[in-house]
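Reviewers asked in the last cycle whether our approach scales beyond single polypeptides. To address this, we selected a multi-component target totalling 619 residues and predicted its structure end to end. The input consisted of the following lines:
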Amino acid sequence: MEPFTKIRSVATPLDKVNVDTDQIVPKQFLKLVQKTGFGQYLFFDWRYERDGTPRKDFVLNDSRYKGSKILLTRNNFGCGSSREHAAWALLDFGFRVVISTSFADIFYNNCFKNGILPVKVEEQVLQKLFETKSEIEIDLEKQTIKTDDLNVSFSIEPHWKKILIEGLDDIAVTLKYDDRIAKYETDHRNSNPRVL
Amino acid sequence: MNITEKILARASGRNNVSPDDVVFANVDKVMVHDVSGPGVLAVFEKLKKSGMKIEKLWNPDKVWVAEDHFVPAADKISAQNVVLLTQFTKDFGIRKHFKYGMGQYGICHTLSHEEAMVLPGEVYVGGDSHTNTTGALGAFAAGLGHTDVAYVLLNGKIWFKVPETLYFKLNGKLPDYVMAKDFILKIIGDIGTDGAAYKTMQFGGTGISEMSVEERLTLTNMTTEAGAKSGIIEPDQKIRDYLAQRGAVNYNEVHGDPDAQYAKLYEYEASELEPTVAKPFSPENVIVARELSSTPLDKAYIGSCTGAKLDDLRAAAKILKGRTVKIRTEVLPAAISIFRKAMDEGLVKIFLDAGVMVGPPTCGACCGAHMGVLAKDEVCISTTNRNFPGRMGHVESKTYLASPLVAAASAVTGKITDPRDLK
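The resulting structure, written as structure tokens, was:
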């Protein structure tokens, strides 16, 4: 995964609560089995008219937020299904950070597995971020969120921080211990011989 | 320690755990289905590209596979995914693969109990958010994303932060025409869709002891809708009998200590509960059914892991017996074994006589996959578990969540109907 350092970008304001994974990627796209290419289906039903033309009133189609890497959204983002396609779609579209007051548990974990930083902030902070006219800078190393008129810190589990900064995933972390795993596999046969 | 803490302590080889501790737990069972299975394979493919060799799973005998979301194959891509899943189980030597059209198959969360795939005291994870369901048997059961499932398939372990437990106590037996669904909808209405975020919801009290095993499964299934990490109920004689009927007698039950701690206690009087409905577009949007009695409907759907178990079908049949439906109504038993029992008990005949369509087990329209999805502006009353925008079809369709009694009564009148008001 691409290592995560500092992200500076205009933020896309998705002013909705309880955005569930079916809104993030509707079910008709779950049948696709590759991990990439889901960006085009992100928020599909909100983003396009039935005939496929982009809906002008939806933030993802607003040219002011083009190239945005940060998604701002309200409480309980990512609730519903465990489908990891939701994280895949956000990443594929270009989002590396999602900021909200709370996230659904499975979605929250799925983000880290795919190099996305979910940031939990207090309600007042989120409100200020929604109102800011400036770009937002997320510094993962320092754990800070900065705008022209705001400078606050956020918390994150040290393990997740390390994984994002080094661009690892859980399996890559385990593989770092490949030699020790192999050694154990050999050694334990000698130290624990079969007795039956 | 409470039951959840004790299971996680045992699974991670510790004497003691407390909420917020991070444990690395050994997993007893893993499940994937026709959506998460191909998703996990996509993760495997990516790992292979990065140079990792994936030749075997940690323990194929602890892995089982269900075909449920897009089966019977809804279209060409779904058919291809089923082929992919078959290849996956063949490649890795997984023996428990429930294939549609070959004897027993059904919705994964239903098979987990119908086939006793998961036992009390176990740590069970699955690539589906409603994996929580199986906690009703006294197991720690939680849903995971594809990468986490891939990790468990290779390593047999996963870390958990020990969740706090919210305890929901039900006093007294549920009144006639009130079901577990009404109780859990009431709870979600009270605590909200994130009211139990990263917490365990445990159920107990005399009302739960009185409840059938299948009804209890409705409670734990819907804990997902309150954001819960897991749902759990301590096993009792009913669970033992239920599992024994399915050939499972050897397992290590876990029970909470007498001084077990709970983050919060919620108490409900069964006699005060009423037939309840969740309005679009959130399971927390709860109201008693009677207050919606003029709401016209286009369709009733009796299906899914939470609403098409044998008890659910019995409840629907009780209402539909000798009556005919006024709106399009579908019954999709949650597993073949349940379909067979419904036939043997005469329920299928009651449904057909009432004009209802009886279909094959599938997640089907519950997740908007196929088999009766909704058109724009269509309004459905459904025994399923989610009513987010577009969940069952068009993004401008509407779903009301309800018990099978309310859904069946509404099918008879064509409007949302409290079963107690049916003439």
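Residues 76-92 of chain B form the longest helix (17 residues). We regard this as preliminary and will revisit it once experimental data from Aim 1 are available.
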